[in-house]
Write a structure and sequence with these properties.
Blueprint: E1 5-10, E2 14-20, E3 26-33, E4 36-37, E5 40-41, E6 47-50, E7 53-59, E8 63-68, E9 73-77, H1 82-102, E10 108-112, H2 119-132, E11 138-141, E12 154-159, E13 187-190, H3 200-220, H4 222-227, E14 229-232, H5 239-251, E15 256-260, H6 263-273, E16 279-283, H7 294-310, E17 320-325, E18 330-334, E19 358-360, E20 370-375, E21 384-385, E22 388-389, H8 392-396, E23 400-410, E24 415-420, E25 430-437
Parallel strand pairs: 10-14, 10-15, 11-14, 15-16, 18-25
Antiparallel strand pairs: 1-8, 2-7, 2-9, 3-6, 3-8, 4-5, 4-7, 11-12, 12-13, 17-24, 18-19, 20-23, 20-25, 21-22, 23-24
The structure holds adenosine-5'-diphosphate.
Length: 441
């Protein structure tokens, strides 16, 4: 491994943009001055280690940095949209001050834009600046392709109480433990696919469900209520994307829409949604945002799954292996995956099988390498609960206890071996199958 180290001197309001391959490890050290990574301040004379990341180290007042290791890209940029991002934060902060005085809800901010314009990075910055003001915002992640908080395929809401970790971002420990930046467990709903287009109906049901849970949290938690929520979205901006955005606005009672890096989307959002009590704001994309190809995205998704079971180099985990009888669990998936997605059907044609129909999956060799989501549902569908029958919608709307990975199938013995981050028998019996597969290296 290379130990080559390089010193960088940054003037005020400059940023060092770096890209690090998955195979490389790079250490970053702030020697003098102040600097931040997506809003989180760096401590002086501490080595931060990165691998498989693209990031910017920004300084408001100038700094000296040392990079040790091989970056695939490294350069200083002196033109950034950071002032406009900070001003946006300050405007939102004014609303929070007002919300605290009147004990009403703080801003509910939706960040929209195409893929790779910096939506997640801007969410991190706005959340970090809010946390730096000793507030406790809720981060809602509706980008099911990325899984910033937990696994890809999930919709999550995380009450943040601590600064976002510079190295690990929003953290990787998912539902088994509180994530970095959060003393509270995130709320996780399983959608099971990287694109909202695969099952728009299910996606919208889960968005509504998540919004209801966040609403309850805001009622109970004054600090979160006045701090408000920041909602990160997927990059879908066609007509399906517009319907999804409209649904999010309604479900979360959004009062600020930030449109990042897309003129037409901005003008459409103004035309469709701007009204008294709902402002639409346009912000420029940073020149540093990097487009991620499908190989990079796949690699990031695999890394997320691996981190869920094995942890990160900073906090390693050892997963537990458990043998499960086929008949002890109920494996379900939502909708019929063999049918064309709704958007691919000819106009006016209705799907025969409901997109939200629960389909029972028979365990077998096809489950090998699947990542299954463990539902918090107590009873399988159709069983009589004290309050009557468990309906499909209720079933789908249960949040998650965690995930398991199918590492071996013993079909003749009707058993399978699963990895789980928790020891012992897995108490929850309803498991969801999505499209998530992972071949352990
Ligand atoms: P989106 O959420 O819109 O898809 P992201 O915020 O995830 O976009 O940004 C895409 C990639 O670009 C990420 O890997 C992110 O870390 C990187 N990135 C964002 N802003 C910068 C910047 N100013 N300099 C360098 N890399 C950046």
């Amino acid at each position: 491994m290379t130990t080559e180290s390089k010193e960088w001197l940054l003037d005020e309001e400059n940023e060092l943009r770096i890209e690090i391959d998955f195979e490389a490890k790079v250490k970053l050290r702030l020697v003098t001055g102040t600097a931040e990574v997506f809003g989180t301040e760096l401590a002086q004379n501490i080595d931060y280690e990165f691998s498989g990341r693209k990031l910017a180290v920004f300084t408001w007042h100038g700094c000296k940095l040392i990079l040790q290791g091989q970056c695939s890209v490294e350069y200083i940029a002196n033109e950034t949209p950071m002032i406009s991002y900070l001003n946006t934060h300050l405007a939102l902060e004014q609303r929070r001050v007002l919300a605290s005085q009147k004990n009403i809800q703080g801003p509910r901010v939706l960040i929209v834009g195409p893929n790779d314009v910096g939506k997640t990075s801007l969410s991190k910055m706005l959340l970090s600046y809010t946390l730096r003001q000793s507030r406790q915002p809720i981060y809602v992640d509706l980008d099911c392709s990325e899984g910033s908080i937990t696994m890809p395929g999930c919709l999550t809401a995380t009450p943040l109480t601590e600064m976002i970790d510079v190295e690990e971002g929003f953290g990787s420990s998912a539902t088994s433990a509180p994530t970095a930046g959060s003393a509270v467990m995130p709320l996780v709903y399983y959608y099971g696919s990287p694109s909202p287009k695969d099952n728009v109906k299910l996606y919208n049901i889960l968005v509504s469900r998540l919004a209801q849970s966040v609403g309850r949290r805001l009622e109970e938690d004054e600090a979160a209520r006045t701090s408000g929520i920041i909602i990160d979205t997927n990059g879908l901006i066609d007509s399906t994307g517009y319907d999804i955005i409209a649904h999010c606005i309604k479900s979360f009672s959004v009062d600020v829409i930030i449109v990042l890096g897309h003129e037409r989307l901005y003008s459409d959002m103004v035309r469709l949604h701007q009204k008294p009590g709902l402002s639409v704001v346009k912000l420029a994309k940073s020149g540093g945002v990097v487009e991620r190809d499908s190989a990079f995205r796949r690699h990031t998704q695999n890394q997320k799954i691996k981190e869920y079971f094995y942890g990160t180099s900073k906090s390693e985990l050892a997963p537990y292996s458990t043998m499960v009888n086929y008949h002890d669990v109920e494996i379900l998936r939502v909708g019929d995956g063999n049918l064309a997605p709704t958007w691919a059907l000819p106009i006016g044609e209705e799907r025969l099988t409901s997109e939200t129909q629960l389909v029972k999956v028979d365990p077998g060799d096809h489950l090998l390498h699947s990542v299954l989501a463990v539902s918090n549902a107590e009873k399988p569908p159709g069983t009589t609960a004290p309050d009557g029958l468990t309906t499909e919608k209720e079933m789908i709307g249960n949040n998650l206890a965690g995930f398991v990975y199918v590492s071996e199938i013993h079909d003749a013995r009707k058993k399978m071996t699963v990895l789980s981050p928790c020891p012992g028998r897995i108490p929850k019996k309803v498991w969801w199958l999505g499209s998530l597969k992972w071949a352990e290296e």
